[in-house]
Design brief:
The complex is a heterotrimer. Among the domains of chain A are: 194 residues, Alpha-Beta Complex (Aldehyde Oxidoreductase, domain 3), CATH 3.90.1170.50; 194 residues, Aldehyde Oxidoreductase, domain 4; 104 residues, Aldehyde oxidase/xanthine dehydrogenase, molybdopterin binding domain (Aldehyde Oxidoreductase, domain 4, 2-Layer Sandwich), CATH 3.30.365. Chain A contains 19 helices and 25 strands. In chain A, strand 10, helix 7 and strand 11 form a beta-alpha-beta unit. In chain A, helix 16 crosses helix 18. By secondary structure, chain B is an alpha+beta fold. Among the domains of chain B are: 78 residues, Ubiquitin-like (UB roll) (Roll); 64 residues, [2Fe-2S]-binding domain (DNA polymerase, domain 1, Orthogonal Bundle), CATH 1.10.150. Chain B is 24% helix and 13% strand. A five-stranded mixed beta sheet of chain B has the order 2-1-5-3-4. Chain B is elongated. The two termini of chain B are 32 Å apart. Chain C is of the alpha+beta class. Chain C has three domains: 53 residues, Uridine Diphospho-n-acetylenolpyruvylglucosamine Reductase, domain 2; 119 residues, 2-Layer Sandwich (Uridine Diphospho-n-acetylenolpyruvylglucosamine Reductase, domain 3), CATH 3.30.465.10; 101 residues, CO dehydrogenase flavoprotein, C-terminal domain (Enolase-like, domain 1, 2-Layer Sandwich). Chain C has 13 helices and twelve strands. Chain C has a five-stranded antiparallel beta sheet with strand order 4-5-8-6-7. Chain C has a four-stranded antiparallel beta sheet with strand order 9-10-11-12, with helices on both faces. Chain C is globular and about 60 Å long. Classes of the chains: A alpha+beta, B alpha+beta, C alpha+beta. Chains in contact: A-B, A-C, B-C.
């Protein structure tokens, strides 16, 4: 892979100075003349029908300018409901039975919006919420997915609690190959186990906020979104206005991690309050609002059954999985991971289930951290039971083609694993006999590997040059924190053959920027980056034909490529190796070494790419050891909504992560770039769990692996 | 950066929407050159005369000020909404995350968890006061070089805690940095970068995070 | 946030008067020093004061004075200053360590010793506004609920655990508390300062609504004893103690003359372990003795449905703390 001039060299972010001087403007930093402040009244009940809402006293409070309820504002929030991977499909909104409004009745989880107030300041808005009298008819509720499938469970929707897909069918997600049942009957070794994962909140540092302003019939919405174009389209659709009548602006945002590539109910509520009040409105979520009003990662229960030959060759894998979606299906509820293994017989059935918890949807690598934790713990356990080194078991059984059928554009998984094992010194750190250390402090090593989608797709870019050879790149990215605007600038500079300093990037404003795919699914570098290359290709052709512009002239080129793969699948690969120290007396788990090896294709900017991996791995530590939205089972109330009780990792919880990239260029995407942002978190919970097993000889099966579970296993 | 995209008939609506300019504070500043709002020039929240309020005298980033505040305003509210110093962020408003960290008499505190009225006679430094319009401090430079800020929302708070640390301990070890910054969460998980930045700003040798050489 | 008036007090007597006046006028009043925790409670409307009586301006409130080996610490001293104070670090190390283990640097810079000792519980039912004993109700939701962080000693009818890190250290150091109230001054021993829920389920100590905790005295008899505060957190920083142990050993060479061992995180008050203390007294602190002390530490403990792990954890923390105190 020949080196490039600009791409591939560590480069500080083009907006780094703004970020370290406080000059970067986030949504809540927007102050408009005459702006009002808004707050949302949320349901205190997990399931209740609203008999009536009396806003008289709140209306009478001096300074209150507008109040919305489900009675006054029956607006459908299209992106909030039936997803099935098609959350942007207008048809879904029309046909769905399980419609989600901005304000719903009945309310189906603690935290569901009941009313919203705009007032002269945030304190008056908060006071007004307390003056709204809501008469609730309390309904029975259910919190856990398996309990919700019992015949006597409270029905969250009249049709039952299996979450419907976008054809209104209450069907599980299935994948079948061969005859697993027959394989289980004949295989020499069959293992079964149950794993579970918890609801983990995205918990980005910036609590949700939005500022809306109407200029005549045109809405300007400042909002933290990773997809300004998608948000714009969603807002227009939900409000019943043309896309041109919505301008979405997001210059900086305080973290995404998957709950920001659509419009959110807060966006709709803010826009409608601004309309009702005839003034700009800023909505502010409290941290608790954000924890219970925004979605997090879907919790899962996973039952595995695995058949293996005497030589350790996998014969069959079965998964019966249940995902808790909350009362709306905002995303698929899938459980990834079976595709990691080459296996002739697969029987995979995952049922997404409605519950009366906070809604679950995208969170960094949506369905994979849960599933990889389950299956990579399960397979690690199988390896031990067969007296095999887990690394050798993995290499022996890993997929080498997608679902054993379709070739990958390149395949470096074994290289990732081998390099990781070497950097980590696996043979020295791994204990052939788990729990063998004398204690009370015991060490152990674990590993996981992954493959993760890196597909191609449509996005757009515009590039312009003026007579002073100043290049301007227009891209509809917002930069969720991964460094997209810098990456786009680097790709443009590389393609143009000019230094980065000659390229100005314009981003984050639908009135100024072309469509971009949105910063979710680790797609922006691949798709928008490729559009940048195509736009530059066009510009260079124009320059060759017309020469440099003169005077006030400019040359402009745009591209909206939609490249496809024929007969191949494109994946990123990786392997994480973790060493832990378990204090068996105190139940304490500490990470003492962490090696992450990734093939994310060619690395555009090693500086920011490395940050992605070490940050995601650290986020995975939180998922592995601490984070869980705990509910009181009797009342259906969330108890741990906030940074303190949810135990988000601190400086002292973060391991030192050694990152290594296996680089290559498979000829696709932007200079061979593949996905990166999500992959880091997918591997860590399983690797940590496997290391804990190696240290203490006890297999933990339920996330998070808190102290009580460690001590319980050792008791 | 005030370039307007030229119109072009074959662009679809989704690719480009013609701009209409609203007279908005932030909209007026184009991406890439967003300037800090000048304190006092930004539309500021006003004291509600019906609510208990007080006049305090404090120094903010070297400038002495007499300010009227509602007794219930937090220091964060005063800084952000009254003085326009929005570099200080509110992540939780409960003293659980550190995004709002500022220095009061050189000590890092949570500005969300201190009332403005308690700041009478005190000296407050925010992220805007670190370089005060001049060149970046060595710490800020180290943050840039080491990619300390991912989303950037916690960065101001990390900077303030680290600034206080370096004043007390000019050459901190990684362990010193972690202890001093333990009250500053980073959900992007970029802790290794933050620690390396602060250690480097103190002239120490940074730890080895692979991949970015 | 709810409206309230901030009233700055110059001295404890004026603070008391401000509180009495507010209460006489039918207003709710709260004393505030560092204020980090108090403001969080006000924002959540767990408490709803009309008047905040600000103790930050009290004269000499943060002084540490020595007299014949005894030390008097102003309740207004910041936890950070306390943790770094030379006399405290060298003569009463368990307290310095405890103060340094609280929350985060930002909180320790404003949080005070008095506020830490008197802070309200961090039970998530209380903090989420459940109508429990601590919120004016008449039940404890943790008993049949999510009680993984709740009491194994001294519970009933409320099962909160006392949240303070400094309180176990103070009890281990045989501290006394000087209180200024409407009827003048009084001094209360640590044993009498904290109250079990069976005595008063609504509060954690004897402070009345108009009482100000002014200073805390450590006796000369404890000066120079070996000490250790061992705290187990639920992540590596910024949680209250899951289980902690303050151990103070008075040694004659390698023989323990007398010992005080007090647990945090396990009971509604700092929980003293007299049996363990007796086990140590007059003995050489061997590894084996520490194991036996750990085993003895959970005598009489009763686990709730989800906190049985605190039993082995307590044993381990006590064993380690004793060995660490021994040095």
């Amino acid at each position: 892979m020949p080196a490039l001039n600009t791409v591939g060299h560590s480069t500080p972010r083009i907006d780094a100075v703004e970020r370290v001087t406080g000059r970067a403007k986030y949504t809540n930093d927007v102050q408009l003349p005459g702006m009002l402040y808004a707050k949302v009244l949320r349901s205190p009940h997990p399931h209740a029908r609203i008999r009536s809402i009396d806003t008289t006293r709140a209306q009478a409070l001096p300074g209150v300018k507008a109040i919305l309820t489900h009675e006054t504002t029956p607006v459908v929030w299209g992106a909030g409901g039936i997803a099935g991977g098609q959350q942007y499909n207008d048809e879904v909104k029309k046909i769905t039975k399980h419609r989600r409004y901005a304000f719903n009745n009945p309310v189906r989880f603690v935290g569901e919006p009941v009313a919203a107030v705009a007032a002269e300041n945030r304190h008056i808005a908060e006071e007004a919420l307390r003056l709204i009298a809501v008469d609730y008819e309390i309904l029975p509720f259910v919190l856990e997915p398996e309990a919700a499938l019992e015949s006597d469970a409270p029905k969250i929707w009249p049709e039952g609690n299996i979450a419907v897909n976008n054809r209104n069918e209450p069907l599980p997600i299935t994948q079948k190959r061969g005859d697993a049942h027959a394989a289980f009957a004949t295989a020499p070794h069959v293992f079964e186990d149950r794993y579970s994962t918890s609801f983990v909140h995205n918990a980005q540092m910036e609590p949700r906020s939005a500022v809306a302003h109407w200029d005549g019939d045109k809405l300007t919405l400042y909002t933290p979104t990773g997809g300004i174009s998608n948000c714009q389209h969603d807002m227009a659709r939900d409000l019943g206005i043309a896309d041109e009548k919505v301008r979405v602006v997001c210059h900086y945002m305080g973290g995404n991690f998957g709950n920001k590539n659509q419009n959110q109910d807060g966006d709709l509520i803010t826009a409608m309050l601004a309309k009702a009040a005839g003034a700009p409105v800023k909505l502010e979520f409290s941290r608790k609002d954000d924890f219970i009003g925004m979605h997090g990662r879907w919790p899962t229960v996973q039952y595995y059954k695995v058949a293996v030959d005497n030589d350790g060759t996998l014969q069959a894998v079965q998964l019966r999985g249940y995902s808790g979606m909350g009362p709306y299906r905002k995303n698929s509820g899938a459980i990834g991971g079976i595709e990691l293994y080459r296996c002739p017989n697969v029987d995979h059935v995952v049922t997404p289930v409605y519950t009366n918890r906070t809604v679950s949807a995208n969170f960094r690598g949506p369905e994979f951290p849960q599933g990889f934790f389950g299956i990579q713990s399960m397979m690690d356990d199988v390896a031990y039971k067969l007296n095999m080194d887990p690394v050798e078991f993995g290499v022996k059984n890993m997929s080498r083609m997608f679902r054993d059928e379709v070739p990958f554009t390149n395949f470096t998984l074994e290289e990732c694993i081998r390099r990781g094992a070497e950097l980590f010194d696996w043979t020295q750190r791994w204990r052939p006999l788990p729990g063998a250390d004398a204690g009370p402090i015991k060490r152990g090593a674990g590993f996981t590997y992954m493959l993760f989608r890196s597909g191609l797709g449509m996005s757009s870019a515009v590039v312009q040059v003026d007579a002073n050879a100043k290049y301007t790149l227009f891209v509809g990215v917002t930069d969720v924190g991964a460094g997209a605007k810098t990456t786009m600038g680097l790709i443009a500079a590389e393609a143009l053959g000019v230094p980065l300093s000659q390229v100005t990037v314009v981003w984050g404003d639908t009135d100024r920027c072309p469509y971009s795919v949105g910063e979710s699914g680790s797609r922006t570098t691949i798709m928008t980056g490729y559009a940048v290359m195509e736009a530059v290709r066009d510009l260079k052709q124009q320059l060759a034909e017309k020469g440099m512009p003169t005077g006030s002239q400019t040359l402009v080129a745009k591209a909206s490529p939609n490249p496809r793969l024929e007969g191949k699948v494109r994946n990123a690969f990786g392997a994480h190796f973790v060493e832990v120290e378990v204090d068996t007396e105190l139940g304490h788990v500490r990470l003492t070494k962490y090696v992450a090896v990734h093939d994310s294709g060619r690395i555009m900017n090693p500086l920011t790419a490395t940050s992605q991996i070490l940050g995601a791995a650290t986020m995975g530590v939180g998922m592995a050891l601490h984070e869980n939205l705990v509910y009181d089972q009797k009342s259906g109330q969330p108890l741990s909504a906030g940074f303190y009780y949810d135990r988000i990792p601190t400086h002292l919880d973060a391991p030192t992560v050694e990152v290594s990239f296996v680089e290559n260029d498979d000829g696709y995407g932007a200079y061979g770039a593949k996905s990166i942002g999500e992959s880091g978190i997918i591997l860590s919970p399983g690797a940590i769990n496997n290391a804990i097993f190696n240290a203490i000889g006890k297999r933990l099966k339920d996330l998070p692996i808190t102290r009580d579970k460690v001590l319980g296993a050792l008791a | 950066m005030n370039e307007k995209l030229p119109d072009s008939p074959d662009w679809t609506r989704r690719e480009f929407l013609a701009g209409t300019s609203a007279a908005l504070v932030v909209a007026a500043a184009a991406a890439g050159t967003l300037e800090a709002q000048t304190p006092g020039a930004a539309p500021a929240i006003a004291v509600d005369p019906a609510v208990p309020h007080s006049t305090i005298r404090l120094t903010v980033n070297g400038v002495a000020r007499d300010v009227e505040v509602e007794d219930r305003w937090t220091l964060a509210e005063l800084l952000r909404d009254r003085l326009g110093l929005t570099g200080t962020k509110i992540g939780c408003d409960r003293g659980e995350c550190g995004a709002c960290t500022v220095l009061v008499d050189d000590q890092p505190v949570y500005s969300c968890s201190n009332l403005a009225v308690w700041m009478d006679g005190r000296r407050v430094t925010t992220v805007e006061g670190l370089s005060n319009g001049g060149p970046l401090t060595p710490l800020q430079q180290a943050f840039v070089a080491h990619d300390a800020a991912q989303c950037g929302f916690c960065t101001s708070g990390q900077l303030m805690s680290a600034t206080a640390l370096l004043k007390r301990n000019p050459r901190p070890s990684a362990a010193d940095v972690k202890a001093a910054l333990a009250g500053n969460l980073c959900r992007c998980g970029n802790y290794n970068r933050y620690v390396d930045s602060v250690v480097a700003a103190g002239g120490g040798v940074r730890s080895s995070v692979g991949g970015d050489q | 946030m709810k409206t309230f008036t901030n009233s700055n007090a110059r001295d404890p007597q004026q603070a008391v008067k401000l509180a009495r006046d507010a209460h006489a006028a039918g207003k709710a009043a709260s004393f505030v020093a560092g204020g980090s925790d108090l403001l969080a409670l006000v924002k959540e409307r767990i408490i709803q004061p009309d008047v905040l009586i600000n103790l930050r301006g009290l004269q000499n409130a943060s002084e540490v004075t020595s007299s014949g080996g005894a030390v008097t610490i102003g309740a207004g001293i910041s936890l950070d200053a306390l943790s770094r104070h030379e006399t405290i670090r060298t003569q009463f190390p368990a307290l310095a360590e405890a103060a340094g283990s609280v929350a985060t640097p930002q909180i320790r810079n404003v949080g005070t010793l008095g506020g830490n000792v008197a802070q309200r519980p961090w039970c998530w039912y209380y903090r989420n506004g459940f109508p429990c004993y601590k919120n004016g109700g008449n039940q404890c939701f943790s008993f049949a609920g999510e009680n993984q962080f709740h009491a194994i000693f001294g519970g009933g009818p409320s099962y909160i655990v006392h949240p303070s890190d400094t309180a176990p250290a103070l009890m281990a150091l045989d501290a006394t508390f000087r209180i200024v109230g409407p009827f003048g001054e009084r001094t209360v021993s640590a044993k009498d300062f904290f109250v079990l829920p069976r005595q008063n389920a609504a509060q954690e100590n004897v402070l009345g609504a108009d009482d100000v905790l002014v200073s805390i005295q450590l006796p000369a008899a404890m000066a120079g004893a070996r000490g250790r505060y061992h705290k187990v957190l639920d992540r590596e920083a910024w949680t209250h103690a899951v289980v902690s142990a303050a151990v103070v050993l008075k040694m004659d060479g390698d023989v323990c003359r007398s010992a005080r061992v007090v647990l945090g995180g396990v009971a509604p008050i700092p929980w003293r372990l007299p049996e363990v203390e007796q086990l140590l007294a007059g003995q050489r602190i061997t590894d084996d003795l520490a194991v036996r002390a750990g085993a003895a530490s959970i005598a009489g403990a009763r686990a709730l449905s989800k906190n049985a792990y605190k039993l082995p954890l307590t044993k381990g923390v006590v064993r380690r703390a004793i060995l660490e105190a021994r040095g």
